[in-house]
Cytochrome c, mono-and diheme variants
Amino acid sequence: MRLSLLGLGVTLLLAPLLAHPAPALDPAPPELLKRGEYLARAADCAACHTAPGGRPFSGGLPLATPLGDVYASNITPDPRTGIGNYSYDDFARALREGVAKGGMHLYPAMPYTAYAKITDEDMQALYAYFLRGGVDAVAQANHDSDIPWPLNMRWPLALWNLAFHEDQTYQANPKQSEAWNRGAYLVQGPAHCGTCHTPRGLAFQEKALDEKDSDFLAGAALGGWYAFNITADTHSGIGGWSDAELVQYLKTGRVAGKAQAAGPMAEAVQHSFQYLSDADLQAMATYLRSVKAVSDGERKARFAWGEPADEVVSLRGQDFDPQTRDDGARLFLGNCASCHAWSGDGVKDGYYPMLSHNTTVGAQQPDNLVQVVLNGVKRKTGEQEVFMPGFAGSLDDQQIATLVNYLTNQFGNPAVKVDSARVAAIRQP
């Protein structure tokens, strides 16, 4: 699942507003439904609007925000609990302006600031997919947000939109190539990459919406994870990646010796990017390479840190002393080495990745590594499923901190440290 700040990725927080069902729309042509399905994949609608074990797009998934949980709504064509009563204009207004049928303003948890860039042609295809034969209607009531009064009042969102929202479809840059423009459209619009990867201001607004501003895609913390800097900077961003590696990462979630997708990015790969064409993924890579480089002050690339371990060999066969149970090397041997090898080199086919030369371990921010140790990794692309168990139930906060500090010292950036208080904060649901 791809998170927005305020629970990123919520496509429509829509409630039924009419008492009587609307007449059924004529089924759309197959080619239009296919295009709409592709665009819904690119926009990653299912990631937020399909709860675990739930019917597709029927909502109910809680999305954490700084103010309280927001629940993804039912966006199936059910006329009472979903969006079955939405006209095309209703649908387009919700996606572009963040205003539901009847005038209710949507929380900017739904990335309408990005979806505003969707072209009319693509918006028509999305409407056809959701309301003219691409999605099954599911009768499932929506859940009110947990945001307390008066913060849950919607009228201030109109002022937020006036201050921060640009309701304009994507405008092609005639000075750039067709591939660049296609990549810019996908990154800025349907794929809404900036929703996670662009820093936010005090009002939770994205500080930039395209490559003209230096804050765009410069990295941001959200929901206990850190969405990395993906500007063209060689050390802080993706400047050290080849186009082929960027495409491979978006398609599979892994590039040996560089990165393994986890958390929200793994969900984005699983639900969205793996279904995009190679041409579209290449276009995205082309565009990302042009985004203004922003340095976070990193001395070398996240994937360039680390060396194989060797001192842990001396601990093999020794009795485990409960008094030293928090020793990082021992925790590594007892919990990690069976898959990642005692050296941390992993398995050469890449299923169990290297811990050195790994962006999660080499990052300046330890939050993603803490998340992975606590909650594990689950990612499925094609026929391959990657799974790592989490240790939240077997290791306490101090043990997690000790283990993470060992991993960053040995396999990542040794200057990065985490304490048990930060682990406890990340552990909270």
